[in-house]
């Protein structure tokens, strides 16, 4: 990550901590609505990679606040596809947080005389969950790179947005299930914080295109390209 | 949780030209064999093709030119490998020598070993196999018992290796052996590079459930190999093997083994597929695209000189699940009989039968998940 993005994330962390108590006002005051606005229009001139990094933090710290709408307001025209793309960043953050909480829990909670994390069954589930989180992070980063290469073009990035949102949707099912399973009853309580990320994950899976929507769209597009066309298009875009 | 750090996949040179040249070369030189041979093609043995590929400069690409290699960047090799696999090229003969043995000899081998073996590997003429598993050491690799005792004449090797892919056509085996008497677990192990025509070696085929002869068992009966067969440091075999496995686990072969089936599915669906088929194609596309990003990032991390042990394991775990589930998901949707003779039906049958091995070879799913769990701080 660039030094500028590191600083942006440090600011976002501090602002989101405030926003967790006070609502959207500190986020607006800190100028996050100008993140995607070009510098020559008095914005911050951030790219989608920056947005993704900030949304990942939002998904971790303030999943319910709706900061994504504020940040997308910096686009001349925010489409449903842009909203889907932003949601992928939020989902990556929330999934990372669900994994963090799960690891902490199984390393501290003792049963049968040892931490839950020492049981192979638990280790295997968490490994599968960690793979899903990594997949969503990779998808989000690659999608962001495409959006940045196309001046935030939702149509030009249509393939990547569809693939990333679909992949994130599918991961959400695995991640919420494993996180709750390894937490046991405590994770099902109002008091414990796991639901602060798992309920938003459930909601975001339906938001801005559920699995069937994006899979159908992507599938028809790929069928139209043919197998060779798919490979050529995928390899022409990156690497 | 800190996110998966994505490494930029940024090969030097003109990647577009590299792809275009290789595609043009393949259209002229790739044998127009049966479609089933194009599936799981890194297990497909064709020495003529390997020699031609070597002559064209697509094998040993990352080896230095003084050893007959191409002196290219590892990510340029990545581009070539994914093109070969997507085309279903029969790369099985030289596959292991190119992917693992060559780089390992370059990194740990003596100057004599480099000069002796690397040029043949780069020509696509010298083939290698990996001697890790034994009857008593499968997932538990540290239980290796094959021994090598140092004598005045050289190493005396006794023991047995099993599940050795390609031993029957390979020239050398890179074997993990116990060189320190009385040592246990991962201490006291070393790697020996042994010519397979050395007296005392017996290779027997093991036919797999698909009817193919890919793997073998190898018996070492008081086999005398020269002192110079030791690769790297005596007693450091475990560390060297572990590094080698990162090369084995993260490449594009981990999500392209079933690509021929995916391609046949897309082409059979035509431009206007029914909703269920479109959905399946969409899901598989999203998964493949994501895996490719993970795999490229892991390759870039490896190329940057960092150790991507956990990332490589994640690529293998997700990749194996993807390519193993694909034939099942296709079977659930596509209406074709088991004995149909269409390309799609024959590919489906072949991959349903081959796919149980995908999450066994190169480390079982359970072992791989254990490595990931250790990376998460659970072990």
List the helices and strands and how they pair.
The complex is a heterodimer of chains A (239) and B (379).
Chain A: H1 3-22, H2 25-29, H3 48-61, H4 67-72, H5 80-108, E1 110-111, E2 114-115, H6 120-149, H7 158-183, H8 195-206, H9 211-237
Antiparallel strand pairs in A: 1-2
Chain B: H1 15-29, H2 47-55, H3 74-87, H4 92-108, H5 111-122, E1 128-131, E2 147-150, E3 155-162, E4 172-178, E5 189-195, E6 201-207, E7 213-225, E8 230-231, H6 237-249, H7 253-256, H8 259-269, H9 275-303, H10 309-333, H11 343-354, H12 365-375
Organism (chain B): Sphingopyxis jiangsuensis
Protein name (chain B): Acyl-CoA dehydrogenase family protein
Cofactor (chain B): FAD
Order of helices and strands of chain A: HHHHHEEHHHH
The oligomeric state of the chains shown is heterodimer
CATH superfamily of the largest domain in chain B: Butyryl-CoA Dehydrogenase, subunit A, domain 3
Order of helices and strands of chain B: HHHHHEEEEEEEEHHHHHHH
- Can you count the helices of chain A? 9
CATH topology of the largest domain in chain A: Butyryl-CoA Dehydrogenase, subunit A, domain 3
Computed CA radius of gyration of chain B, to the nearest angstrom:
21 Å
Just name the CATH architecture of the largest domain in chain A. Up-down Bundle
Cofactor (chain B): FAD
Domain Acyl-CoA dehydrogenase/oxidase C-terminal (chain B): 274-376
Keywords (chain B): FAD, Flavoprotein, Oxidoreductase
Domain Acyl-CoA dehydrogenase/oxidase N-terminal (chain B): 17-125
């Amino acid at each position: 990550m660039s030094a500028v993005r590191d600083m942006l994330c440090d600011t976002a962390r501090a602002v989101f901590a405030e926003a967790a108590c006070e609502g959207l006002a500190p986020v607006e005051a800190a100028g996050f609505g100008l993140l995607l606005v070009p510098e020559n229009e008095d914005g911050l001139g951030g790219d989608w990679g920056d947005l993704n990094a900030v949304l990942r933090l939002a998904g971790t710290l303030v999943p319910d606040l709706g900061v994504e709408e504020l940040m997308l307001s910096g686009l001349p025209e925010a489409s449903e596809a842009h909203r889907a793309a932003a949601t992928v960043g939020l989902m990556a953050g929330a999934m990372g947080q669900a994994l963090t909480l799960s690891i902490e829990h199984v390393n501290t909670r003792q049963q049968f005389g040892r931490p839950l994390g020492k049981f192979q069954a638990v280790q295997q589930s968490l490994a599968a969950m960690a793979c899903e989180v990594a997949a969503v992070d990779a998808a989000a980063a690659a999608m962001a790179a495409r959006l940045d290469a196309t001046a935030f073009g939702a149509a030009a990035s249509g393939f990547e947005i569809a693939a990333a949102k679909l992949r994130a949707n599918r991961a959400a099912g695995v991640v919420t299930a494993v996180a709750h399973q390894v937490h046991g009853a405590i994770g099902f309580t109002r008091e414990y914080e796991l639901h602060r990320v798992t309920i938003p994950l459930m909601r975001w899976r339906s938001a801005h295109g559920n699995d069937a929507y994006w899979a159908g769209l992507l599938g028809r597009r790929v069928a139209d390209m043919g197998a060779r066309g798919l490979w050529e298009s995928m390899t022409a875009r990156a690497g | 949780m800190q996110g998966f750090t994505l490494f930029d996949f940024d090969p030097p040179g003109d990647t577009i030209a590299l792809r275009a040249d290789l595609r043009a070369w393949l259209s002229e030189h790739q044998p127009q064999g049966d479609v089933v041979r194009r599936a799981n093609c890194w297990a497909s043995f064709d020495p003529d093709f390997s020699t031609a590929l070597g002559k064209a400069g697509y094998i040993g690409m990352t080896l230095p030119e003084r050893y007959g290699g191409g002196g290219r960047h590892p990510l340029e090799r990545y581009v070539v490998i994914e093109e070969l696999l997507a085309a279903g090229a029969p790369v099985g003969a030289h596959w292991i020598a190119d992917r693992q043995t060559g780089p390992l000899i370059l990194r740990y081998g003596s100057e004599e070993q480099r000069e002796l073996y690397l040029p043949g590997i780069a020509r696509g003429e010298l083939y290698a196999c990996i001697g890790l598993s034994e009857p008593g050491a499968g997932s538990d690799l540290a239980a290796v018992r094959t021994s090598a005792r140092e004598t005045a004449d050289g190493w005396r090797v006794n023991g047995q290796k099993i599940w050795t892919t390609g031993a029957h056509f390979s020239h050398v085996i890179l074997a993990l052996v116990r060189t320190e008497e009385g040592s246990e677990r991962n201490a006291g192990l070393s790697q020996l590079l042994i010519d397979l025509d050395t007296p005392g070696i017996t290779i027997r085929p093991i036919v797999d459930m698909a009817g193919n002869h890919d793997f073998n068992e190898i018996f070492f009966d008081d086999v005398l190999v020269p002192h110079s067969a030791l690769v790297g440091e005596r007693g450091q075999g475990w560390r060297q093997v572990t590094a080698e496995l990162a090369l084995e686990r993260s490449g594009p072969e981990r999500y392209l083994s079933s690509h021929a089936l995916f391609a046949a599915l897309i082409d059979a669906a035509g431009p206007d597929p029914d909703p269920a088929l479109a959905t399946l194609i969409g899901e598989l596309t999203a998964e493949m695209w994501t895996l490719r990003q993970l795999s490229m990032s892991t390759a870039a991390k490896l190329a940057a000189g960092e150790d991507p042990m956990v990332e490589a394991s994640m690529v293998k775990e997700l990749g194996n699940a993807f390519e193993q589930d694909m034939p099942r998901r296709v079977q659930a949707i596509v209406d074709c009989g088991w004995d149909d003779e269409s390309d799609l039906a024959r590919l489906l049958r072949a991959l349903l039968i081959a796919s149980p091995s995908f999450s066994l070879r190169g480390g079982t799913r359970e072992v791989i998940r254990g490595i990931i769990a250790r990376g998460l701080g659970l072990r």
